[in-house]
Automatic annotation (TrEMBL):
PANTHER family: ASPARTATE AMINOTRANSFERASE, ASPARTATE AMINOTRANSFERASE, MITOCHONDRIAL. One of its GO terms (cellular component) is mitochondrion. Residues 35-402 form the Aminotransferase class I/classII large domain. In eukaryotes there are cytoplasmic, mitochondrial and chloroplastic isozymes. This is Aspartate aminotransferase. It comes from the Eukaryota. GO terms for molecular function: catalase activity; heme binding; L-aspartate:2-oxoglutarate aminotransferase activity; pyridoxal phosphate binding. Signal peptide: none annotated.
Amino acid sequence: MASDHGDSVFANVVRAPEDPILGVTVAYNKDPSPKKLNLGVGAYRTEEGKPLVLNVVRRAEQMLVNDTSRVKEYLPIVGLAEFNKLSAKLIFGVDSPAIQENRVTTVQCLSGTGSLRVGAEFLARHYHEHTIYIPQPTWGNHPKVFTIAGLSVKTYRYYSPETRGLDFQGLLDDLNAAPSGAIVLLHACAHNPTGVDPTPEQWEQIRQLMRSKGLLPFFDSAYQGFASGSLDEDAQSVRMFVSDGGECLVAQSYAKNMGMYGERVGALSIVCKSADVAVRVESQLKLVIRPMYSNPPIHGASIVAAILKDSHMYHEWTVELKAMADRIISMRQKLFDALQARGTPGDWSHIIKQIGMFTFTGLNAQQVAFMTKEYHIYMTSDGRISMAGLSSQTVPLLADAIHAAVSTVV
Ligand code: KET
């Protein structure tokens, strides 16, 4: 007998809210206005407002497609071996003693998010302390990933709304008060959403404190090369922690720095004290991955490996990456100048002081809602804007909107 809709076995399922970041794109897509602007998700756009596939990525992909000897067999559970080796070198440095001593295990995962998730599940199963401290604020998906993996999430102070800079003392105090052995999530560079990074001297103090208390660093490196334009410079925080011989985890993403967003390419590395431990850790990572998604996809990782292993292609990538980073930095200056020119109330110097893909504007949720309603500008309700989504043509519109928002909405 045909049943009516009321009889669904899922009748009690309640409708979930959209994701705070990806939901902004959903709302943007529904808006029919021709002048609409999406500054929500952290995805690079060209001066013409178009998504960018790097030339070097196109070239590598073409090479792979033309190679008819390539097959589509399953990868091993840990992914493409060559990709894993090259990814470790990219983040830890070509001469890293930890790599030479075989103390690092690297497994290919589903971009940055998948790497965080696999690392977190490994920790939940095999590490004695289940509390992870994440910065306040942080990327909105962090608490969800870690909670669902079985860790218990606490926060440490990071950002001071008054100075729109780092709350360094708050950070030190909170890490100092954390139980010994606790896991600490650190953004390797270009902190999301604040755009505020510790200085090298502050990183060194954080390192000393964490090592003295036996806190375990878990780095999220989603923006290597995007902050300064230099891959090495943006890896300094991680390398500082690895060079002291201690242990740590690193989740790497190629979504932003290679524009591989939808290919879901990333890696999880665990730096261990000895090669023997690294082998055992890797064997357990396989037990986390196998029932989760069996093994990772081959296409994107092959593209990344092709670029990383060829010195010409690698160089071409660094040039294209620097161009993306520079365009973002120039948008910061343009937006700052446009607000100055309008005499917009308030101090906007944080726009040029912050670093990476985002500006944490300080606009409140009401002001953001006003800008969306009146100006068709889409951004996350915490006042974060993706500078990578701006162009010379759209800066005046954004400046008008910010000016109106701070002048009329309290
Ligand atoms: N870590 C951070 C800090 C981060 O900002 C993102 C993505 C990721 C990890 C995950 O990226 P993946 O695509 O899994 O490699 N952030 C942007 C996109 C998103 O929310 O998914 C964003 O904040 O807009």
